[in-house]
C-alpha cells in the first residue's frame, strides 16, 4: 500500500530537534563555566595557601643541633672566643695563651703566648667580641690586652678560610694599681677605649677606670691616648663584685655585695652616681649581670631563678635616662653562671652547667631550652648568630648550629604592647629598620590595622552620604533624559587612576586645606543647610511658579545657590577661625585665632599637612562612583508598580522614596556600601601619597597614618626575601585577606536577611 503524504504534525519533531552541534556546544560551555568557577576557587585557595606558607615560619621555635666536638686538652679555661663565622675559635688558658682550633681538623692548633711579667698570674678575664679584644686582669695590679685579627678568604665552595694573628700590648698601667685586678670589663669603638676594673686593695675593693681616645684623620689613625675619663677610687657604698660598661662606654654598672646595682654616668666632666637599682625586690641574690646587644639593656638573673630585663629610658618625672624594669622572663632555675649574647639582635643564651636557654629580649620569650648530658661553660654565640659553642671542664669544645631566623616574630610582638628600649612605657609601634646594628625591630601590626580602619572610616563618612543621596536623586527625581547622561559620567570617575588622585591630594588638596580647615568646616555645614533652606522656600512658592521648572530639572535652581553658598563659606573661613578657634600663647599671653595651634593645644595631638581628612576627601572621591552606581542600579530595579501605587494613594515623592523604594532596595544598597568599604580598605596609592605614612596609633583626623596595604607597598621592595620583615608583610596581607573575607561574609548574611524581609514588596 502506498504511504500517504507526511502530515505537518509528524514533521514537527524533526523541525524543532536541536542540532548536535548546539547540544555539544551547550554541554561544552556548561563544563567550561564549571571549570572556570572551580579554577577561581582553586586560585583563591592557592593564594591563601601561599600566604600561609610564607607566614607560618614566623611562629616556629629555634632549632639547635650539635655539629662538632673538638678535643682541646685545655682544662680550666678562662674564656672562649671566635670569628663571626665560628670557623676558627680560640681558647684562653690559665696562663693567658690563646690557642686557635680548626673545627674541620685540617689545621693543627695555633697558639699565641701571653707576655706575662714574671711571677704574675691572671686574676680576671673578659672578651669583647665586637672589637675582638681580650683583656686579662693581673695579680700585679695591671691589665694585659690582646688584639685578635681575623682575615677571611673564601674558597670556591663559599666557605671561609680564616687566618688569625694576635697583637699583645704591654701590661698597663705603668704605675700599677694597689692590688690584683679581680674584676674587669672593656669597651672599644672607633673613637675610644674604656676599661673598668675592680682592684683588691688590701681588705677592700676599689674601682679603677682607664679611658683612651683615638683621634682620626683622613690619612691615618692615631694611637690611643689617655683622656679625662680615667679615674681612680670611684666610691661604692658596698664592696663591688662585678663591673659592666654600657651605652657606648658612658654608663658604668657596678654590682655590689649588698645585692644592689650602682649606676654611674659620664657627664662630660666626671663620673656621677646616677641610680641605685634593687634588681630583685622580692628577694634573691644576684647570679648574673650582663648587657645584651646594644648595651642599653641589662639581663639580670637571681639564684632563685628570677630573670628580669632592665633598660635605659628617659624618665617622664626627672627627664634623665635611667634603668627601669621592662621585661620579666620565665624563670631560669638556679640563675645563670654563663652568658652569651648575639651581635645581630636581642638574642642571648643563659647557661648553668647542663641547663641552656636561648631567649629573646624584645618579646621576653624563650626560643629554645634544653638540659645537656655534660656541663658547658664559656658559652659563645657566633657573630652571625648561626652557631653556639661551649667548653666542658675536661677541655672538649662543643659546637652547635642555631637555626632561629625569626626571633623577633611572635603573637606578642605583632599584637601586644611591647616595652621597647628607650621608651618610657609599653607601646604599639611599627619601625622595621633603624640606623645601627643595635636597632630593635618594632613590628606591631596594630598601628597598621588601626590606620587601615581609620582611612576607611573617614573615606566612607565622606563618600556614603554623597553617593547614596546622588543615587536616590538620580533614580527617583532626575529627568530620564539627563539620567542617561549623568550616570555614565559618574561611572567614568571610577576609571581615574589612584596615583592621579593621590598626586592631587598630596600636591593640591593638602596644601590648600592646611590653612583653611575652618573654611572646609563651614562649607560642609553650609551646603546641606543651604539645600534644606532652598527646599523649604521652594515648597512655599505658588504652584504656578514651581510649574515653570520641568519635573526632574529642579537641580538647575539648586546648583547656583550651592556654589554661591560654598564660595561665601570659603571666604568667611578666616573670620570664623579668628572668632571660634582662639589660641593663647603660653609665653607672651597673646590670644589670636589659629586653628592649627588651637587643635594641637585642645587635642594634645599634632596637626599634620597630610592627614586623614585629606585621605578621606580623596579616597572618598574614589569610592563614590562604586557606591553610586550599585546603589542607583538597586533603586532603579524596584518595580514601578510599587512607587506608582504609593503615589496613587496620595504619598509624596519623598515619602514614596523613603518608605517604599529605599526599604525594597536596601539589600542592594548595603552591598554597594560593603563593596565600597572593600575598595577603601585595599586602597594603596592614595594613602601612600596623601598621608605622612607614619604608623601612629590614633583616630585623630588631622594626623597621618599608615595602612596595611600602603605598608606592603612601601616596605616590600626593601625586605630581604624570606626574612622576618618579608614574612611579616605577608602576615599583613593575610590580615587584609581575612578582614575582607569577614566583611564580605557579614555583608552577604545581612543582605540575605534584608532581602528575605522585604521580598514581600517585590
* Content-based structural category: alpha+beta
Count the helices. How many?
16
Strand content: 25-35%
Share of helix, binned? 25-40%
Contiguous uncertain segments of 5+ residues: none
Query: Care to count the β-strands?
Result: 33
User: How would you characterize the largest beta sheet?
Assistant: 5 strands, antiparallel
How far apart are the first and last residues' alpha carbons, in Å? 63 Å
Q: Mean pLDDT, as a whole number?
A: 87
Kindly provide the radius of gyration, computed on alpha-carbon positions and rounded to a whole number of angstroms: 38 Å
Described by the principal axes of the CA atoms, the overall outline is elongated
Explain the layout of strands and helices.
Elements: H1 8-15, H2 20-55, E1 63-71, E2 79-81, E3 90-92, E4 98-100, E5 110-112, E6 122-128, E7 133-138, E8 143-154, E9 160-168, E10 181-188, E11 192-201, E12 204-216, E13 221-226, E14 231-234, E15 240-246, E16 251-256, E17 261-266, E18 271-277, E19 286-291, E20 297-302, E21 307-314, E22 321-328, E23 338-341, E24 347-352, E25 355-360, E26 365-371, E27 377-381, E28 387-391, E29 396-403, H3 411-415, E30 430-431, E31 442-443, H4 446-476, H5 480-493, H6 498-514, H7 517-539, H8 543-546, H9 555-580, E32 582-584, E33 591-593, H10 595-603, H11 612-636, H12 640-648, H13 653-681, H14 685-690, H15 708-715, H16 724-758
Antiparallel strand pairs: 1-29, 2-3, 3-4, 4-5, 6-7, 7-8, 8-9, 10-11, 11-12, 12-13, 12-14, 15-16, 16-17, 17-18, 19-20, 20-21, 21-22, 23-24, 24-25, 25-26, 27-28, 28-29, 30-31, 32-33
Helix pairs in contact: 2-16, 4-11, 4-13, 5-11, 6-11, 7-9, 11-13, 12-13, 13-16, 15-16
Amino acid at each position: 500500500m502506498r504511504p500517504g503524504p507526511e502530515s505537518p504534525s509528524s514533521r514537527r519533531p524533526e523541525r524543532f530537534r536541536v542540532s548536535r552541534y548546539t547540544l555539544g556546544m551547550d554541554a561544552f560551555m556548561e563544563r567550561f563555566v564549571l571549570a572556570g568557577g572551580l579554577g577561581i576557587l582553586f586560585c583563591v585557595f592557592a593564594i591563601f595557601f601561599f600566604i600561609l606558607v610564607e607566614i607560618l615560619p614566623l611562629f616556629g621555635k629555634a632549632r639547635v643541633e650539635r655539629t662538632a666536638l673538638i678535643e682541646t686538652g685545655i682544662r680550666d679555661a678562662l674564656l672562649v672566643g671566635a670569628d663571626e663565622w665560628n670557623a676558627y675559635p680560640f681558647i684562653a688558658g690559665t696562663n693567658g695563651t690563646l690557642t686557635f682550633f680548626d673545627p674541620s681538623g685540617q689545621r693543627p692548633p695555633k697558639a699565641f703566648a701571653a707576655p706575662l711579667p714574671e711571677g704574675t698570674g691572671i686574676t680576671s678575664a673578659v672578651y669583647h667580641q665586637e672589637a675582638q679584644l681580650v683583656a686579662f686582669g693581673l695579680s700585679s695590679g695591671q691589665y694585659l690586652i690582646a688584639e685578635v685579627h681575623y682575615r677571611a678568604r673564601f674558597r670556591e665552595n663559599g666557605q671561609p678560610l680564616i687566618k688569625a694573628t694576635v697583637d699583645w700590648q704591654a701590661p698597663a698601667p705603668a704605675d700599677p694599681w694597689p692590688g690584683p685586678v679581680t674584676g674587669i670589663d672593656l669597651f672599644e669603638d672607633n673613637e675610644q677605649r674604656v676599661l673598668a676594673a675592680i682592684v683588691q686593695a688590701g681588705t677592700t675593693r676599689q674601682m679603677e677606670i682607664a679611658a683612651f681616645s683615638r683621634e682620626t684623620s683622613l690619612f691615618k689613625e692615631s694611637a690611643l691616648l689617655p683622656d679625662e675619663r680615667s679615674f681612680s677610687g670611684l666610691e661604692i657604698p658596698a664592696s663591688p663584685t662585678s663591673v659592666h660598661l654600657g651605652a657606648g662606654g658612658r654608663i658604668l654598672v657596678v654590682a655590689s655585695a649588698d645585692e644592689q646595682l650602682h649606676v654611674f654616668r659620664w657627664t662630660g666632666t666626671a663620673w656621677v652616681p646616677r641610680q641605685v637599682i634593687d634588681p630583685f625586690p622580692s628577694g634573691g641574690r644576684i647570679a648574673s649581670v650582663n648587657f645584651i646587644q646594644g648595651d642599653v639593656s641589662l639581663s639580670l638573673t637571681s639564684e632563685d631563678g628570677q630573670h628580669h630585663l632592665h633598660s635605659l629610658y628617659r624618665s617622664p618625672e626627672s627627664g634623665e635616662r635611667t634603668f627601669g624594669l621592662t621585661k620579666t622572663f620565665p624563670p631560669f632555675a638556679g640563675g645563670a653562671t654563663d652568658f652569651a649574647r648575639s651581635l645581630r639582635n636581642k638574642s642571648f643564651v643563659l647557661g648553668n652547667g647542663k641547663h641552656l636557654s636561648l631567649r629573646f629580649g624584645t618579646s621576653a620569650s624563650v626560643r629554645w631550652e634544653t638540659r645537656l648530658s655534660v656541663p658547658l661553660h664559656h658559652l659563645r654565640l657566633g657573630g652571625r648568630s648561626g652557631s653556639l659553642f661551649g667548653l666542658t671542664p675536661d677541655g672538649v669544645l662543643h659546637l652547635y648550629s642555631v637555626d632561629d631566623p625569626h626571633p623577633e616574630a611572635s603573637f606578642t610582638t605583632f599584637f601586644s604592647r611591647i616595652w621597647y628600649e628607650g621608651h618610657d612605657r609599653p607601646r604599639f609601634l611599627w619601625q622595621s629598620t633603624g640606623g645601627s646594628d643595635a636597632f630593635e625591630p618594632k613590628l606591631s601590626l596594630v598601628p597598621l590595622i588601626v590606620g587601615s580602619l581609620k582611612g576607611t572610616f573617614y573615606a566612607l563618612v565622606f563618600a556614603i552620604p554623597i553617593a547614596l543621596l546622588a543615587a536616590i536623586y538620580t533614580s527617583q527625581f532626575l529627568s530620564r533624559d539627563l539620567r542617561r547622561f549623568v550616570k555614565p559620567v559618574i561611572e567614568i570617575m571610577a576609571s581615574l587612576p589612584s596615583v592621579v588622585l593621590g598626586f592631587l591630594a598630596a600636591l593640591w588638596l593638602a596644601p590648600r586645606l592646611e590653612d583653611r580647615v575652618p573654611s572646609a568646616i563651614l562649607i560642609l555645614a553650609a551646603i546641606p543647610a543651604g539645600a534644606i533652606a532652598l527646599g523649604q522656600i521652594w515648597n512655599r512658592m505658588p504652584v504656578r511658579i514651581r510649574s515653570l521648572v520641568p519635573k526632574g530639572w529642579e537641580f538647575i535652581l539648586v546648583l547656583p545657590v550651592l556654589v554661591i553658598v560654598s564660595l561665601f563659606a570659603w571666604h568667611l573661613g578666616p573670620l570664623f577661625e579668628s572668632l571660634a578657634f582662639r589660641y593663647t600663647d603660653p609665653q607672651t599671653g597673646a590670644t589670636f585665632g589659629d586653628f592649627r595651634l588651637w587643635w594641637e593645644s585642645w587635642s594634645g595631638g599634632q596637626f599634620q599637612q597630610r592627614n586623614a581628612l585629606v585621605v578621606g576627601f580623596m579616597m572618598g572621591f574614589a569610592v563614590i562612583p562604586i557606591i553610586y552606581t550599585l546603589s542607583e542600579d538597586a533603586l532603579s530595579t524596584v518595580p514601578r508598580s510599587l512607587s506608582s501605587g504609593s503615589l496613587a494613594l496620595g504619598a509624596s515623592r519623598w515619602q514614596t522614596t523613603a518608605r517604599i523604594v529605599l526599604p525594597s532596595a536596601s539589600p542592594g544598597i548595603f552591598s554597594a556600601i560593603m563593596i565600597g568599604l572593600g575598595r577603601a580598605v585595599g586602597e594603596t596609592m592614595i594613602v601612600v601619597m596623601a598621608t605622612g605614612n607614619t604608623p601612629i596609633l590614633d583616630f585623630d583626623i588631622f594626623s597621618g597614618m599608615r595602612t596595611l596595604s600602603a605598608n606592603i607597598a612601601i616596605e616590600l621592595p626593601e625586605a630581604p626575601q624570606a626574612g622576618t620583615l618579608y614574612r611579616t608583610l605577608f602576615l599583613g596581607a593575610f590580615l587584609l585577606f581575612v578582614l575582607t573575607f569577614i566583611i564580605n561574609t557579614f555583608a552577604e548574611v545581612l543582605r540575605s536577611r534584608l532581602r528575605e524581609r522585604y521580598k514581600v514588596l517585590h
